[in-house]
Amino acid sequence: PDVPVENGKITPTETGEYYITYSVKDKKGKMTEAYTTLKVLPKVSEETVFIDYTFEESDVDLNGFNVVFDEPAKGDYTVEKGFLTISVEHPGDLDYQAKLTKNQIVIEAGATYTFAIKLKASEPIRAHFIINNAEGEWSPYAEMWNLDVATEMKEYTVEFLAEEGSGNAEFLFQFGGKTYDGVDNPEQFMLTIEYIKVTKAIGSLIENEVFYMDFDNGEYSGWNHRGDGTQQALLEVKDGALQFVIDKYPNGNNPWEMDLYLETNYDIKAGEMYKIAFDYRTLHDQFFELCFEDSNMDWQIRAGYKEGTLTGEGHFEWSFVASMDLTNLHIKLSLGRGASTTNILTIDNVGFYHLTGDREEKTDITDFVPDATPWGTYNNVDEGAEGVVYVEDGKLIYEIYSFGTSDWYNKLFFENITLTKNGLYTLEFTVKADKKVVGVTGLNVMGKWDPRLWKEVVITEEEQTFKFRMDNQLLFDMTFELLFQFGFPENEGPVKIEFSKIRILRQE
């Protein structure tokens, strides 16, 4: 709008941005000017509480699992802070006298099953992990004997194709006294279990090849690399394979600062299943973020994501269900956090496939946090991040044992928050920690990276109330996730972060 001036005062009456020029002239007629912008926002109503989270303790459903101690074994268990903790006072004389078990598991003939348990021990022990068809008394579907259980959190799995069904299969995780190879477990120890997961897969899949590249002819059309300008790297075909020579990682050594990527003319569809496969060889361990994205919008439009570390040489395969439609698929390997200042990554026999058929997977997870809580936590154990969220004395506690190397590797989240149109929203929370911790927080649009509110916070031992407001009203209803992320290198674990209030306010 035009800038209204009355008696030397600017008197705006309309919303909008007013561009204002200040000028001054000296006695010799020389003039200089300065500029500013006055932004007048729409008048809003008083703030009202839109969401106010309450933190109440509730019971945990063990989903049919039982901790069993048969004489002379002795022990007990508790469920707290998001874990099932088993305290063994005496392991007994035989392996099956102390165990975690579940009966009457239904197994469907022809289906493939994966059973997984994630746990750690207070000191190294031996255990047996068995899925037995109890209808035949002793007829195991899968068994892992003399399993070494480590002192760090780790997932242990058994997998099998069920040739015959059962209405009474049993899950057995046995940690009693003497294992079959004659090794005695310690007299006393503790097991800390994060979850038990059962995945059932039925049907079959057909691999429809989209493209395959073996580089034997020396061509690598569509492949390229880029970085932030501080890296030094060369891409070429050598000895019939694509070779990426990294003479210097970017200064920040973050994966998003250097990419090896492939531009395709292929379109993928939301809800369809795809697979990528390739052979690799790496001089040093190489962390990667594998992204399937829009060729123009990059990380803002992403249909699939996988991260991990390539070690030595081997064959890599990963399948995913596209979360959105993409035109001209862009496949990106973001590379960072190298083990040294240089590396050589070699890739060959790259195949991309559209998977069709009637294969379906269903996963049942038994964890040890109360059901139907609006919050959850993600901790990237592979990258050194460990933590748990729980309720204690009316407070929401995020206890972080160790921090990862990226902010989102230690994350507390609230998902599927619907904020209604014409609202201007404010995030308010009261928090303290038992030591200083740096983090970021905000409201991000679900399904993509599009934060409408994103702020840095420094949490201290003194309780503080933070209050952040969005810049603009929402034009229509939108679904958000509320994020608190703490994986910064300056943070030191363990630390306990205590939220006494989290709420979202609304103005119109």
Short synopsis of the structure:
The chain is built from no helices and 37 strands.
The computed structural class is: mainly beta
Low-confidence parts: none
Biggest sheet architecture: 6 strands, antiparallel
Mean pLDDT over the full residue set = 90
Q: Could you estimate the helical fraction of the residues in percent? A: under 10%
Radius of gyration: 28 Å
| Number of separate strands | 37
Shape: globular
Strand residue content: over 45%
Q: Multimeric state of these chains?
A: single chain
Helix count, per DSSP? 0
Query: How far is it from the N-terminal to the C-terminal residue, by CA?
Result: 23 Å
Structure description:
The chain has 508 residues and is mainly beta. Helices cover 0% and strands 61% of the residues. Strands 5, 29, 30, 32, 35 and 37 form a 6-stranded antiparallel β-sheet that branches. Strands 7, 8, 10, 13, 15 and 27 form a 6-stranded antiparallel β-sheet that branches. Strand 18 (232-238) and strand 19 (241-248) form a beta hairpin. It is globular.
